[in-house]
C-alpha cells in the first residue's frame, strides 16, 4: 500500500517504523520546504534500547493523488493548515487518518474537506520522543486505537493495513467514547502539571484533589451534552491510574511550556470551554486552566 505520512515527528516516525516493512511509506515536507525527492536518515531507538537506521523519503504534494492512505501525525493545531494544503490533491477515495490528541480537529477538517471524505481517527497510548530530526525514541509501550470520524470503513484495505501491521492496534466502533476519556485525562494531567511545574505523579498529592474533581465534573457535563456518558467515579479511577502509571513522566504540555513551544491547550481544556459556551453550562476550572496556560505561553 502506498502510504503518505504528514508529520515526521515523534508519532509520525513511530508509525513509519511500524509500517515501513509492509508498505511504501513516504513523507510530505512542510509547506515551503522543498525536500521532495530527498531522503533523510534517522536513528530509531526501540524500548529495549536497540537502535535501527530508517530512511524518510519525501514526495511533493502533487503526488498525494497517488496515495492509498494519508496519515496525518501532527499537533492538533497543525492539522487544519496541513489539510488545507493537501486538499486540492487529495481524492475522496483516499482515506485520511488523523492521529492527534485533543478534540475539535475533526470539525476543522470537515470544514476544509466537506463530508465527502473518509476520515479515520488513530488514538494512541504509546510514548515517543523526537530528540532531534535525526533521532526518535520509543519511550512508552502502549497500543493504537483505530476508529472512524467519517465513512472510514473497517472492512477496507487501509483500515486492515493499520490493524494488521501496527503493533497492538484494535478497532473501536465507539471511538468517540475513548476519545472523550482520553480528553478527560489530558484536561486534568496536562494543564495542572504545566501550571504547577510538576511531574505527573505529583498530582496524587491531596492538594490537587478538589481541582481534579472539579475538572472531571465539568468534562462529564459537557460529554453528556454530546451524548457521551462518562461515569464520574470510573473516570476518576482511570485518571488516577494514568497519574500513577506515568508518575515519572513530564506531560507533553509541561514540556511544551518549558520549551516555549505552542501547546495543545485550545484542543484540550479549550475544547471544553468552547462546548460550555455552546451548552450554557459553565466550565470555570477548565477556563482557569486555559487562561493560566495562555499566560505561561506568552512568557
Ligand atoms: N509523542 C507522544 O508520545 C504522543 C503524542 N500524541 C499526540 O500525537 C500528535 C503528534 O505528536 P508528536 O508526534 O509528538 O508531535 P511532533 O511535534 O513530534 O511531530 C509533529 C511533526 O510534524 C511537523 N509538521 C508541522 N506541520 C507540518 C505540516 N504542515 N506538514 C508536515 N509536517 C509538519 C513538525 O515540524 P515542526 O516541529 O518543525 O513544526 C513535527 O516534526 C499530537 O497531537 C500529540 O499530542 C499522542 C500520544 C503520544
Ligand atoms: C497521558 C499523558 C498525560 C502522559 O504524560 C499525556 O498524554 C501527555 O503528556 O500528553
From TrEMBL:
GO CC term (a single one): cytoplasm
Catalytic EC class: oxidoreductase
Record the organism. Thalassotalea mangrovi
Instruction: From the UniProt record, list the reaction(s) this protein catalyses.
Output: (R)-pantoate + NADP(+) = 2-dehydropantoate + NADPH + H(+)
Write down the EC number.
Answer: 1.1.1.169
The highest taxon in the source lineage is Bacteria
- Keyword Amino-acid biosynthesis in annotation: no
The name this protein goes by in its record: 2-dehydropantoate 2-reductase
Domain Ketopantoate reductase N-terminal residues, every copy: 3-149
Q: Which GO terms describe its biological process?
A: pantothenate biosynthetic process
Amino acid at each position: 500500500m502506498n502510504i503518505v505520512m504528514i508529520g515526521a515527528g515523534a508519532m509520525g516516525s513511530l508509525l513509519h517504523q511500524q509500517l515501513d516493512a509492509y508498505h511504501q511509506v513516504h513523507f510530505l515536507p512542510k509547506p515551503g520546504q522543498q525536500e521532495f525527492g530527498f531522503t533523510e536518515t534517522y536513528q530509531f531507538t526501540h524500548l529495549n534500547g536497540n537502535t535501527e537506521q530508517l530512511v524518510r523519503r519525501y514526495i511533493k504534494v502533487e503526488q498525494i493523488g497517488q496515495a492509498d492512505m494519508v496519515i496525518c501525525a501532527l499537533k492538533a493545531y497543525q492539522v487544519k493548515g496541513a489539510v488545507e494544503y493537501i486538499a486540492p490533491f487529495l481524492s475522496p477515495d483516499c482515506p485520511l487518518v488523523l492521529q492527534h490528541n485533543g478534540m475539535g480537529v475533526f470539525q476543522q477538517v470537515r470544514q476544509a474537506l466537506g463530508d465527502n471524505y473518509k476520515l479515520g481517527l488513530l488514538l494512541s497510548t504509546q510514548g515517543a520522543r523526537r530528540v532531534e530530526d535525526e533521532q526518535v525514541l520509543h519511550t512508552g509501550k502502549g497500543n493504537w486505537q483505530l476508529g472512524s470520524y467519517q465513512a472510514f470503513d473497517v472492512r477496507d484495505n487501509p483500515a486492515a493495513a493499520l490493524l494488521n501491521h501496527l503493533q497492538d492496534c484494535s478497532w473501536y466502533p465507539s471511538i468517540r467514547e475513548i476519545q472523550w476519556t482520553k480528553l478527560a485525562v489530558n484536561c486534568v494531567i496536562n494543564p495542572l502539571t504545566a501550571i504547577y511545574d510538576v511531574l505527573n505523579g505529583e498530582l496524587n498529592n491531596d492538594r490537587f484533589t478538589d481541582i481534579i474533581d472539579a475538572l472531571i465534573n465539568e468534562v462529564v457535563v459537557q460529554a453528556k451534552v454530546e451524548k457521551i456518558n462518562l461515569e464520574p467515579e470510573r473516570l476518576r479511577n482511570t485518571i488516577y491510574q494514568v497519574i500513577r502509571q506515568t508518575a515519572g513522566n513530564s506531560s507533553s504540555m509541561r514540556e511544551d511550556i518549558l520549551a516555549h513551544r505552542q501547546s495543545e491547550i485550545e484542543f484540550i481544556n479549550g475544547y471544553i470551554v468552547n462546548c460550555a459556551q455552546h451548552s450554557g453550562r459553565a466550565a470555570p476550572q477548565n477556563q482557569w486552566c486555559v487562561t493560566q496556560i495562555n499566560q505561561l505561553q506568552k512568557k
